Amino acid sequence: MTRFLKHQEILNKCERINQDYEIDPGFFDRIVDDLLNSELDTEEVILEGFQSLLAEVDNEIERMESYSDMKPNCFKGCAFCCYFPIVVSRMEAKIMFRSIEQFSEERKNAIFRHWENYYKDQSGKLEKAFSMDPEDPQTKLAYKQLNLPCPMLDPETQLCMAYEVRPIPCRTYLNYSDPQVCAENHMPKEPFSYEFLYTYYFGAINELIQVLYENGEEIFIDYPMDAWSYDYLPAWVLKWREGTLNEI
Ligand code: SF4
Fold first, then answer.
1. In degrees, to the nearest 5, what angle opens at C-alpha 70 toward C-alphas 15 and 3?
2. CA distance 56 to 63
3. What residues does each domain of the chain span?
4. How is 33-68 classified by DSSP, letter by letter?
5. Which atom belonging to ligand 1 lies closest to the Cα atom of 150?
6. 126 Cβ closer than 6 Å to some ligand 1 atom
7. Confidence at 3, pLDDT banded by 50, 70, 90
8. Measured distance CA(80)–CA(43) in Å, rounded
9. pLDDT for 169-222, tens place per residue?
10. Most ligand 1 atoms within 8 A of CB, residue of 58, 152, 161 to mutate
């Protein structure tokens, strides 16, 4: 049965997770070890690692939800959080784009057609968004107020067009209260962010790429530069389309 938690209930449950729940980093470490010992080629290791580590973030959240007896009320087609600024590293953007290149022709072409319109229709908002400093604490609200959708959001279905490779910010923001709070507020106070999981995910993906780099494997990532270069996801998509993704 659907249950909308009150803000204070959410805070109490999160407090309990904070105090008593222990995250086992072994889940993330095992994914890295298994891939590095596998027979997969280097590109497969990177793409598989990216997807598996992100899926492990989902798994860890589910374990915490089960521990604290709460279920998110986010539902398919509710995409208010897809209007927040999504900031990712050039390394993640490159892996995401490589993954999209491996989608079926039909799926890929739908994304590329959507981008044709997106970058025309949203050019004014994008210009404003790109002028905002991602590190400024005021940016989140100002960006959300632009009402600029993520370039991966299908405008008809309101579903993510790259769901299985959506980055970590899209996975760690969940609403356990009435979904209406997301519809009515740019920055609702109720949704919970599992940002503390970033450390485990980033530690593991960095270790994976670093080992491949130190082993002299041919990788499509400029390591470590790409791991430390951050921008908005729509900015990376634009650079990828223009063929300037590698330019500093
Ligand atoms: S990548 Fe997908 S889930 Fe994330 S903001 Fe964009 S459309 Fe939404």
1. 125
2. 10
3. 43-242
4. HHHHTSS--HHHHHHHHHHHHHHHHHHHHHHHHHHH
5. 6
6. no
7. confident
8. 33
9. 999 999 999 999 999 999 999 999 999 999 999 999 999 999 999 999 999 999
10. 152
